[in-house]
Specification:
The complex is a heterodimer of chains A (about 325) and B (about 650). Chain A has about 325 residues and is of the alpha+beta class. Chain A is about 25% helix and about 35% strand. In chain A, the strands form four sheets. In chain A, strands 1-8-7-4-5 form a five-stranded antiparallel beta sheet. A four-stranded mixed beta sheet of chain A has the order 14-13-12-15, covered by helices on one side. An eight-stranded antiparallel beta sheet of chain B has the order 7-8-11-14-9-2-19-18. The N and C termini of chain B lie far apart (about 90 Å). The chains are: A alpha+beta (about 325), B alpha+beta (about 650). At the A-B interface, helix 1, helix 2, strand 4 and strand 5 of A face helix 6, helix 7 and helix 8 of B.
């Protein structure tokens, strides 16, 4: 089995832990200030004190400006497109500067889920800016975008200031899609004319009639028969599987298999379903307690969502299976 | 701004940083001119779109290596000052770096070098104009630093983007930095490190315009020089008695070879009693003047106002090194002290006075006798001579105007009869000498100009003057033979000019007093003032609080609180106790025998009442209609509510 994992992105050269880092410019400036301070103190020369206070003022102001500027920034997610693990996804971030005093420039926005650092050249006080971001998620499933890191060295570049801004954004990241070549041979059994599988389900052919039961949809009431018999009769259709592919995903993860193998299986199933849909096939995805059908591409989203959320099961789960079902499982199926 | 424009701005910034060095003479003018010429050549090339390599980079590198050795020679032989040599070195680096920028981006280093030049300029400047220079330089520097920060962000992210205009931001930050700087300036400790003395040279020396001798063999001119020598505060009630001010600097009481000289005196310390240095005995009306005075570094001579008999506020006062002159020792360039003055002073000890040995010719003697006539008193003779000179001699400030640059006192008295104050004073002393009256020339400053904004007299170097002191037998009496209108310090400008002058002088005073000479003593005074004000404010607030508590706990106020509380309770309880209209209706219906159940409306109750007691139902029907209107109408009508309650009250009655 080929296990492909996406490595964590390398941290940006400017990234750091904590909230502030002295830059080279800042270090030089502070050394310069200390020297001038010593000279002023030593000589009692007040013009030197003027220079010293001016430099100290610049340092203090630089710290206040970068801190105050970043503190006034809010980041919100406006929109996120369809996201697949390992593939760039488009998102729109809205950055607002709530500060009444500080303008901020040269803002760098990073996060472990943002593919490339974003740059906001200038954000005036009380203004907001929309930034198009490319997100890159490494794993499928329910992802919560908790925070982004904002960096700036504005105004004078003495300090690199950082602020972690909390976000309210959550989304479902679909499983990673693999190379199409991997599953080409698995489509051999799925092509052909439309057939039925002699079991009730979504389709156009009549399978059987039965008494109305609580919970049945009124759309399926066979009115003609009901009128003649004087009681409600339900018409059941036979499941269509022609130009359709039945996919079964078994979430059982036997002992001795790794999580990566399970993820690989889910990715393979997703890739298979994705390819089937792109070939115009109808897909029935069977998983424990859920059976999803996608016809003409409709319902695909639910299917990928189910695959994104499937969790490994410690115990085998019984699932009825029809002929030609494509099964995806980790290890040997019991 | 284009890259070229920014490069030009960086070059101009370095040139600007060095401009104050022309005026404070921290280094020679030659290296400065060379620096500016070289930088100007680079700037022109860059502005024309060419490279900054005025000199081939290879040659410049060779020069840079050669300069290492030259620096030692410069410090030891040429400028003989490590500070001046270091300033030259920094200027060289500033000229070298634009050419080096062809090889690598060195913008940060260039700005650092520019900062060093700026500090060298700042450290040696004393004029208030430096404030404008600091603001302009800071603004341009901040612009550049914002740009450097921007470029650094581009470098780390690898994504170029345009820099937004930075002028407004730079102006904003310069204002902020100035504000913070102004707050920090008085707080930073003013302590001189005794271990490493004088790393950077102190302020430039100043002169007062007074010479050691009055040498009539040379041309003696006084040029207009507005440099402030002293500022003197006198209380308004004393101004009529002690002005025009005379600040005494030097006493010329001996004559030799057409030169009036000061007589040497042994330098000796004057003892003080509780900080008061007594130098004479007061006679008559006395007042105190506060004097802020520039000190000459080499002498430390005090310019005490004429009539001073005591001095306070100085760490030390010495008599000497010439007769009747006083010194102090201070590490600062100016001192502030209080001079106690009286209309006249006598020496504390008997003084041996002598008549200057002036070799007067017979014509001068004859003139003196003619002036004195039959007067015999020392003071009377002096007055006659003074009056004679005032009436018969013409004041000419510039010797060139009378066609001769130098003349003797006799020539002045007998033939020319025109000259400046020194000739008048010397002529009077000469005449008094022939009359055997002890007299001497006093050099100092006269008049000054009153600053109406700050209330002090400003005495400038151009107010230098010479007058005469004659001995009357017990004390020295001041005489001034120079016509008063022509004495220095008497010039008057227009109203606007005077006002602007006063304004400028006030700013300069503030700058001198609270910036240039601000020291540890001022910090202590400031801290004490702050503590005093805080104590005062605390005391005031405590007293106000106590007063407020007293008022609040007075019986009248307690009664008022009780009344207010009762009113509030009344307003709160009455509506609670007021029964709803529905309940009143229900009670009335119950009285009529109709029990209104929980699921019953008053309309239903009215139907029942109508069947049992129709006449009562007819009476109640309009009221119930009114109630329903009040209860279910979306529109509130206070009048309707009042009418309903009134009817219900009538019903109850």
């Amino acid at each position: 089995m080929i296990v492909t994992t996406i490595p964590s992105p390398a941290p940006a050269p400017f990234a750091f832990d904590g909230v502030v880092r002295l830059t080279r410019t800042g270090t030089t400036f502070i050394i310069f200030t200390v020297v001038i301070g010593f000279a002023a103190l030593n000589t009692g020369n007040n013009p030197l004190y003027i220079g010293l206070t001016f430099m100290l003022g610049s340092l203090l102001l630089s710290g206040l400006a970068s801190k105050g500027g970043l503190r006034g920034l809010d980041v919100a997610i406006d929109d996120i497109g369809e996201a697949w693990a390992g593939r760039p996804a488009d998102a729109v971030l809205r950055i607002t500067n709530r500060s009444r005093l500080w303008n901020v420039r040269d803002i760098i926005i990073t996060s472990e889920d943002i593919a490339e650092p974003l740059l906001v050249p200038q954000l005036g006080r009380g203004r907001q800016e929309v930034v198009h971001a490319t997100l890159l998620f490494r794993r499928r499933g329910h992802v919560e975008l908790k925070s982004v890191d904002l960096y700036t060295r504005y105004p004078f570049g003495f300090f690199m200031k950082k602020r972690r801004v909390s976000l309210r954004g959550e989304m479902i990241v679909f499983p990673r899609l693999l190379d199409e070549q991997l599953h080409r041979d698995r489509f051999r059994t799925t092509t052909g004319e439309q057939t039925t599988v002699n079991r009730p389900g979504a389709g156009s052919e009549v399978h059987s009639f039965r008494e109305f039961a609580h919970g049945d949809s009124l759309r399926h009431v066979y009115w003609k028969k009901s009128a003649s018999l004087g009681r409600w009769i339900i018409k059941q259709t036979e499941l269509d599987v022609a130009r359709a592919v039945q996919v079964l995903v078994d979430p059982y993860r036997p002992r001795g298999t790794t999580e990566d193998e399970f993820e690989q299986m889910v990715s393979e199933a997703t890739t298979f379903v994705h390819q089937a849909l792109s070939r115009g096939l109808d897909v029935v995805l069977q998983m424990p307690r859920v059976s999803l059908r996608s016809k003409d591409g409709q319902g695909a989203h639910s299917m990928f969502r189910a695959l994104a959320l499937v969790e490994p099961s410690a115990e085998p789960v019984h699932q009825a299976m029809v002929r030609n079902t494509v099964v995806f499982a980790v290890g040997e199926r019991p | 701004m284009t890259r070229r424009g920014r490069e030009v701005e960086v070059l101009l910034l370095a040139m600007l940083a060095a401009v104050p060095l022309y005026f404070n003479y921290a280094i020679g003018i030659v290296p400065l001119v060379m620096f500016h010429a070289f930088m100007a050549a680079i700037t022109v090339r860059v502005a024309l779109g060419r490279g900054p390599d005025v000199v081939p980079p290879v040659l410049m590198r060779v020069l840079a290596f050669a300069y290492i050795g030259f620096y030692v020679v410069d410090a030891a032989v040429i400028s003989r000052s490590a500070i001046a040599a270091s300033t030259h070195l920094v200027l060289f680096i500033a000229a070298y770096q634009p050419i080096e920028s062809l090889q690598r981006n060195n913008l940060s280093q260039r700005l650092l070098t520019t900062g060093l030049i700026f500090i060298a300029s700042l450290a040696t400047s004393t004029h208030i104009v430096i404030v404008a220079f600091v603001l302009l330089f800071g603004f341009l520097m901040f612009r550049q630093m914002i740009y450097v920060s921007h470029m650094e962000t581009i470098r780390v992210t690898g994504r170029p983007y345009a820099l937004a205009p930075a002028s407004r931001a730079a102006a904003f930050y310069i204002a902020g930095a100035t504000l913070i700087g102004a707050v920090l300036f008085p707080i930073l400790p003013r302590l001189r490190n005794p271990i490493v003395p004088g790393m950077i040279g102190a302020l430039g020396n100043t002169t007062t315009g007074l010479s050691d001798a009055i040498d009539f063999n040379q041309s003696r001119t006084s040029s207009p020089d507005p440099a402030v020598v002293a500022r003197v505060w006198i209380s308004p009630d004393a101004i009529p008695f002690f002005t025009p001010l005379r600040l005494r600097g030097a006493v010329y009481d001996s004559y030799s070879g057409n030169r009036w000289l000061q007589t040497s005196d042994r330098r000796r310390s004057i003892r003080h009693q509780r900080g008061v240095y007594r130098i004479a005995r007061p006679l008559g009306f006395a007042r105190v003047a506060r004097v802020q005075q520039v000190l000459t570094r080499t002498e430390g001579r005090l310019f005490l106002p004429a009539g001073t008999y005591a001095v306070t506020g100085l760490p030390q006062v010495l008599r000497g090194p010439t007769r009747d002159s006083y010194l102090t020792i201070s590490r600062t360039d100016s001192v502030t002290y209080e001079a106690s003055m009286s209309r006249a002073v006598e020496p504390l000890e008997p003084e041996s006075v002598r008549v200057p040995a002036y070799p007067a010719g017979p014509e001068v003697v004859a003139l003196a006798r003619q002036i004195a006539g039959s007067a015999t008193g020392l003071e009377a003779r002096a007055e006659l001579v003074e009056t004679y000179l005032l009436r018969n001699y013409q004041y000419v400030q510039r010797p060139e105007d009378i066609g001769r640059t130098a003349m003797t006192t006799e020539e002045f008295l007998l033939t020319v009869r025109r000259g400046h104050c020194e000739y008048f004073a010397a002529g009077m002393v000469t005449l008094l000498s022939t009359l055997n009256v002890p007299a001497r020339i006093v050099g100092g400053f006269y008049g000054g100009r009153m600053n109406p904004l700050t209330g002090y007299f400003v005495i400038r170097r151009e107010d230098a003057h010479a007058w005469v002191e004659a001995w009357n037998g017990s004390r020295w009496v001041t005489f001034d033979p120079t016509p008063p209108a022509l004495r220095p310090g008497g010039s008057q400008g227009g109203m606007v000019g005077s006002y602007l002058s006063a304004l400028g002088e006030s700013a300069t005073y503030f700058w001198d007093r609270y910036v240039l000479t601000f020291g540890l003593g001022d910090q202590v005074a400031l801290a004490m003032e702050v503590i005093t004000q805080l104590r005062r404010a605390t005391r005031a607030s405590r007293a106000s609080f106590r007063r407020a508590v007293d008022v609040a706990t007075s019986p009248g106020m307690v009664a008022l609180y009780a009344g207010l509380l009762a009113l509030v309770l009344l307003l709160w309880i009455v509506p609670l106790r007021r029964r709803p209209a529905f309940e009143l209706l229900v009670r009335h219906l119950r009285a009529c025998g109709i029990e209104v159940g929980p699921a019953m409306t008053v309309e239903e109750a009215l139907s029942e009442l109508r069947s049992e007691r129709p006449e009562e139902a007819e009476r109640l029907a309009p009221l119930i209609a009114l109630y329903e209107q009040e209860r279910f109408s979306g529109r509130t009508d206070p009048g309707r509510g009042r009418l309903l309650r009134k009817r219900l009250a009538e019903l109850r009655a």
